[in-house]
Design goal:
single chain; alpha+beta; 4-stranded antiparallel sheet; 4 strands; rod-shaped
């Protein structure tokens, strides 16, 4: 079966039309799928932005709540605090030295005390640990019996302030 010249032209035109339609559909499909990708990404980013807003408001609320207690402690204030704790317990006569030590990021202080009994050591440690103004932690503790008087102790204490 042989086609006439006119039928061949119709057939070629129909093939070209179908080919162009397929190309158009492929391009449109890829654009629409890209659009849905960006729509999903936009929804995710909106959720993320809402979470950031919530965290920012919570941060501001906590910052307001902390107020004056949130200020960073200075070396002088922690030294004054340690001195006031020893005075409160009546141990200022037992303190031989309070000095700052070098540390990478945190402030570290060393306290040396003599002629203590065990209950005074426990009371002093409790008094330092219960502080709410400074975040203190006992980094190292050394307790020795005095050679001259075995009933009394020597205390070397390193306190870390964050």
């Amino acid at each position: 079966m042989e086609l006439t010249q006119q039928n061949r032209r119709y057939l070629i035109a129909a093939a070209i039309f179908i080919l162009i339609s397929l190309i158009f559909l492929i391009v449109e499909w890829s654009l629409l799928s890209g659009k849905s990708y960006y729509e999903r990404k936009l929804r995710y980013k909106r959720k993320e932005a809402a979470e950031v807003k919530r965290l920012a408001s919570e941060y501001l609320r906590l910052k307001k709540l902390v107020g004056k207690n949130g200020k960073r402690a200075t070396r002088g204030s922690i030294l004054a605090y340690l001195s006031s704790r020893t005075r409160k317990l009546g141990l200022e006569k037992n303190v031989t030295s309070i000095k700052p030590l070098r540390s990478d990021r945190k402030k570290v202080f060393e306290i040396r005390m003599d002629n203590l009994n065990l209950s005074e050591v426990v009371d002093f440690l409790f008094e330092i640990e219960k502080n709410s103004r400074f975040n203190t932690r006992v980094r190292r503790i050394q307790i020795r019996k005095k050679v001259s008087d075995p009933d009394h102790l020597e205390l070397i204490l390193q306190i870390e302030v964050e």
